[in-house]
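Q: What does the assembled structure look like for these inputs?
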Amino acid sequence: MLKRLFRYHLIMALDIAREVADKFFKKSGDIKLLFGERNPNYLVTTKDGKFVLKIHSVDEVLQLQIQQSALAALENLVKFQTPITVPATSGELLVDIGDGKFARMLSWIDGDLWSQSKNLSDGHKIALGKLIATVDIELGSVDVAKYRNELDRPFGWNALQVQSLVDDIELIKDAELKQHVKLVLDRVINGTLAKVKALPHQLIHNDGNDNNVVINEGSVVGLIDFGDLIYAPRVCGLAVGCAYQLDARDPVASIYSIVRGYHEVAPLSPAELEVLFDLICLRVATSVVMAHRQLAADPDNEYLGVSQDFFQALLPALTTVSDRLSHYRLRNACGYEAHPDSRHVRQWLATTDAKISDVVMPPFAQAKKIWLDWSGENKNIARSWEAIEAEMKSAGADVAIGHYCEDRNVYESDFFVDEGKESRTVHLAVDLFAPAGTPVYAALDGKVFLFHDNTAHLDNGPMIVLEHETDQGVKFHTLYAHLSRASLDGLSVGKEIKSGQQIATMGTEEVNVGWPPHTHFQLIMDLCDMAHDIWGVAAISELPVWRSMCPNPNLILRIPEGTDVHAHMKTETLAQEREVVLSRALSLNFQKHLEIVRGEGAYLYDRDGGKYLDLVNNVAHLGHSHPRVVAAAHKQMLTLNTNTRYWNQNAIEYARALAGTLPDPLSVVFFVNSGSEANDLALRLARTHTKANGMMVLEHAYHGHITSIIDISPYKFNGPGGEGCPDHVRVAPIPDAYKGIHRGEGSGEKYAADFANTLKTLDQPLCAFISESIVSSGGQVPLAPGFLKQAFAVSRAAGGLCISDEVQIGMGRMGKTFWGFELHDVVPDIVTIGKPLGSGHPLAAVVTTPEIAHSFMTGMEYFNTFGGNPVSAAIGQTVLDVIVDESLQRNALTVGNYLMAGVRELGKSIETIGDVRGSGLFIGVEFVTDRESQSPATKVTKDLIEFARENGVFLSSDGPADNVLKIKPPMIIGTKEVDIFLDVLERGLNSI
Ligand code: PMP
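A:
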């Protein structure tokens, strides 16, 4: 990399430096001159650590004051380190050491520089982006008003001063290099700069290059060298970090990870992304100009010339890719739709009054169509015209349709592979196969944008691109390829074309360079300097970019059966997309994340065919993809799906059947769509009935994710990010007879007494007490015997209702009983049911008494759009039927007991198994480091879960210390599955 002019006059003999360190900073020890960029630095190694002594001249004092403010603002960084200023014994941060020299001391960050580190991965790049963002966010709070003059000093590395580089372009003798630099500077000066200047400014580090980033034990740990601080938009600092990590093969892809890492910490706005690529190019061009500037001042410095190889080689790669496409790709990397106007064009096409014409065979709606499967998965592709024609003939079809976003393997020419890059295989158009000579018409009014005969094998053949414009002046294009040569006769760029005007005929196979006769019809937002090499296919990893760049042509063709086959994206792409288009607050299972593509019975399958026994999912109550559930859903969806405002047997019969599983007086059913919604409705019912608001809940309980329910979920409000217990809620100790505050026999009563005492602290009337009968989020904790009955009595005596949350545990899972509360010989006032109710279909319910339901008749109507719709009800009824038909409650009892006995047997020899508990197929296995102290074996639990995954079994954990295996499989598992689990458990615990 380029080095700045070194201030040789500041260098001191080592023993003088040692004396300075000792005299002014009281740091004595080994001393060594470090390679610095501008100033001499000395590493001082003392008994209490390493420090850097820096020597400066008087003209730097103001600049150093800014640096001190910046470093002070960064002292409390948590995830990364920056140097901390060590004051002199005089208390000064910068001391005058005489002779026109000033000294300061900084802490040393252990590790190697990025530039010296090997095996750096995408993960490091993500961390680099986060590092730059983290530092710049903190710097944003530094008040620099009084330093503005100094920060805006003439400084070649300040992107905002790009104009100052222009005069020095002439120093570049290599004509080609000069051209590239000029192109970049022109582009920035004539367009980008104004946009950059319009962004908010702040103090930024501005030099995240690979000589300033510290890596220790494989992790990016810190940022050093605050000598380039400027006042500029934050994105300028990101651009600097990116510039030093570019790979000429695909410069934009090579910085995706940095940008994503940055975006995760400091979300990038569309306006910032619009200028990022140009700012990166500018940094590279700046480096080239600065090197020539310095070479001019110091012609004998060979180092300056050599260190430029990297950037000089990069420039052509940067100027030959489209800056607009780069912008779109960076937008996509951050989750924004790649092309900022694509949505507008799609909307315009969907709503415009402009005439949209049939591209072939008007009226195209009446043409008889067949669809060709050219996907890579089809082993029997009709590739030749003979084969296609035969298929069309046998179906009596006029036209065969080739799909949009189909991943094909027919692009076997080199033409679709760029050196060192992924081949382009995903089709961005719709193909319309018909005999050569079939007329082709313009879809919309427009003008000829370009036309060309692409003669390379498997290329586009003769093609025409028309340009169109929406009512808001946004331009886009339609492409018609594989035409006859004669179609190009008489065309001229700019020629007006009318919608529906015949513009071409389909070409023969010979003209069409190896393709059977068809028209490749594509919508294109921006040709991005592709000239006539217009991409009709894209790399699958860039599919989201190209979907936006080339919207589905069916917006024009309007084929009701559809054209989009949604090619299966790579797992890596899905992972990246998920990070930006779904909330990051949503975690993924396991340390090694998986793409699960199929479920059947008790097993899940990943994309590579890996098979996993699922002991986690109590939602798939009857097993994954139960054929009777699928059939019931399918049949009802084919027949009717409305809401519950009509008489419909499904909801009514099902409500009766569901209520039939519950004791009197629980008989009135409300259908909802999730456990959270059920609990929210339960609260409303209780509040309306009691006219009170106070709530009693159990420690560690979780009842759902919505606002009202987070308030009654200590697991959340006392967990990470939680805001503490609301005023209207009181939390009673979890009645855990194994490791709670009271243990063993008789503890239920003690917990009930605690409950009563906690209730006394509630300073408002009690509305309800809500609990599960086995507290799942607490770590599968069965309520100590006797507790629930007394807690219900205490709550009722206080005027409150009792709500049983059966979302996790209900529907026969307990084995012995159908519902969890039945284990405790109580009858709740309200029961909430969720997860298993629809065996995978989002279906939940609240069941209550006629009296409470009556109180709810306030005049305000209760309506739930989806709750109890005929499809959901058909599914719910089928689930109840199958539980009976397949004897699943009995199965839960016998298989659950077999499982618990098996684990207890293992516990005889494996000390880690501290407790085995639960009922039916709702089981907790608590891991401890020793049984006496019951200390949680959290790491063992985590490792075991990974071990089990590697060995084909999915497990999960919970509890305050995350040391309890939660076992809650589909109800259909048998002893064969339990044996698989026991084997993995034994092997895992013996090997971890
Ligand atoms: N109650 C309990 C006991 C739960 O475990 C959950 C979900 N884990 C809920 C309610 C909320 O259900 P949902 O996620 O369907 O809203």
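The radius of gyration is 35 Å.
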